[in-house]
Amino acid sequence: MAKSAFNVSELNNYIKKLISMDYILKDINITGEITNLNFHKNGNIYFSLKDKFARIDAMASQEDIKINLFDGAKVMAKGTVTYYERSGRVFLYISQMDLDGKGNLYQEYLDLKEKLTKEGLFDPRHKKNLKKYPSRIGLITSTSGAAIKDVINIFRKRNKTCDILVYPSLVQGAYAAESLIAGVKYFNEEEPVDTIIIARGGGSFEDLFAFNDESLAREIFASKIPVISAVGHEVDYTICDFVADMRAATPTNAAELVTLSEDEIISELEKKKSQLNNLMDRRLDYNRLRLLSLYKNISIKNQVYKINERTRDLLRAHALLNSAMKKIIEGHEYGLQEKKFYLGNFKLKESKEIENYSYRLKNISVNINSSLNKDIESLNFDRKLLNYYFKSYVNDNHRKFKPFEKFFATYDISLRLNNERNRLNLLKLGLDSAFEKINKVEILGADGKSLKSARDVSLGDIISLKFKDGKLESKVQKVEVRD
Predict the structure, then answer these.
(1) pLDDT at residue 1, as a whole number
(2) How many beta carbons lie within 10 A of that of residue 94, not counting itself?
(3) Is 180 within 8 Å of 216 (Cβ atoms)?
(4) pLDDT digits (tens, 9 = 90+) for 423-478
(5) Closest by alpha carbon to 93, among 152, 165, 44?
(6) Residues whose CB falls within 8 Å of the CB of residue 141, separated by 6 or more in sequence, listed in order
(7) Torsion angles phi and psi, residue 370, rounded to 5
(8) Using CA atoms, how far apart are residues 242 and 245, in angstroms rounded to an integer?
(9) Residue 225: is its pLDDT beyond 90?
(10) How many whole angstroms separate alpha carbon 222 and alpha carbon 234?
(11) Cα separation values, 109 from 34, 114, 173, 239, Å
(12) β-strand pairing of 462-466 with 471-475
């Protein structure tokens, strides 16, 4: 009898039940490398986790993942293994994920590294050169660790003349970054040194995280003194390493980089001494050859001949100079005589002209005074004549108007004005009466009563104008009242 067979759906359902009943697969942590990363528009992330020998498909919600994912990222994921019976595939549904098993600290490290790189804090152009022969070294480290002992031992073996100033600092924990910053400020502001070393022994990523602090990185960048970062082992890298002027693989390596040993200094001095001796020997040989050449070219006879020749040249030059100076002086003397004669004639001529001008000015002054006196006499005569004519004119007019004096005294002008005013009023009344009869206009208000004054009307009122031959209505748009 043949055994009963399962169909595919029954098999897949059975596998799903087995997987769902396994408590290990319900909440499992798994590490691996991301590949085939796909951010879907439905809000899910699809990818695979792999290692050297195997891979598994995985998915997660974009809301649950708080880190930046990329192909090749090493992650530690927490989730549940599920089985989809329709496709017969095993999936890892992830609810939480961290990079490289170090949690969000590593992501913070990457973000800060990217930020400071863009700002240029790691640019080699900003790196300061170390002093070749330092006399004072500032060491920022923990006094209880092994790093300080190793560094000081190396210093003492290599160079006993260099002073080492230690700033005790925390190198791990929440307040370590503040302590390290205070150390950098101390050597920059209070106790200047030639080089600063920030040192710490090895440790986990979390232990070294104080050296990934942004404020510490900016303080190292702003330091006027070169800074060497000697944190952890050779494989450990921190933000402090990137921003420092030099990175040492270990604290002891920093002590080797910052100083030259006494043997190296002596060797270099010996080398410089040998180079200096060689240079001096070459210079002495060269000058010795030059002196020998000059000595061969010099003879007493030749020198006497040259001296005599130079003497004759000097005598000729002296004679020529005297002759030239004599000609110059004679030429200047002749010119001075000419100028003296010209100045004498000029002085005589100008003196005569000045006398002529003086005589003419005196004549002009006499003529002006005479003319002024005549004008004054003429004006006085005209003034007297004018006074005489004015008095005569006034007397003549006074005699003419004297007969009318009594008439003006008895004439009452105010009475005449009142009479004329009354006469004009009578004429006006007659004219008004005649005008009213000819063209009479009556102004009525809205109530039909006659309006006698502008004060009886308000803005917007409806008024009626009654003429002799008709009537019209109007709306008041403006009212002006005279006092």
Answers:
(1) 42
(2) 21
(3) yes
(4) 777 776 766 665 555 556 677 777 777 777 777 777 777 777 776 677 777 877 77
(5) 44
(6) 147, 148, 151, 166, 167, 168, 169, 171, 197, 198, 199, 200, 251
(7) -65, -45
(8) 8
(9) yes
(10) 25
(11) 20, 9, 16, 8
(12) antiparallel
**Alpha helices, DSSP H only, in 402-412?**
405-410
Residues recorded for the chain: 483
* Token reading at 324: 């030239």
Lookup result for tokens 């920093």: 254
| Phi and psi torsions of 95, nearest 5° | -110, -20
Scan for tokens 């370590």, then name that residue.
176
Closest CA to 101 of 77, 76, 65: 76
Beta-strand (E) ranges in 173-223?
Answer: 195-200
Displacement of CA 212 from its chain's centroid (Å): 31
**Alpha helix positions (H), 211-299:** 214-222, 239-243, 251-258, 262-297
Lookup: tokens for 325: 């100076």
The model's pLDDT over 107-161, given as tens digits with 9 standing for 90+, comes to 788 888 899 999 999 999 999 998 888 888 999 998 887 778 878 888 878 777 7
Q: Are 155 and 136 in contact (CB under 8 A)?
A: no
Q: Given the DSSP bridges, would you call strands 44-50 and 55-61 parallel, antiparallel or unpaired?
A: antiparallel
For residue range 85-101, what is the model confidence (pLDDT) as tens digits? 888 888 899 988 877 65
Q: Mean pLDDT in the chain?
A: 79
Three-class SS string for 337-367? Answer: HHHHHHHHHHHHHHHHHHHHHHHHHHHHHHH
Specify the DSSP class assigned to residue 7.
Answer: -
Give CA–CA dist 198/254, Å, rounded.
9
| Type of residue numbered 440 | K
Tokens of 479: 């009212």
The pLDDT value recorded for residue 237 is: 83
Other CB atoms within 10 A of residue 439 CB:
10
* Angstrom distance (rounded) from CA 302 to CA 308: 10
Phi/psi for 100 (5° steps) reads 55, 20
- Cα 229 to Cα 91, 125, 258, 471: the distances in Å are 45, 18, 11, 112
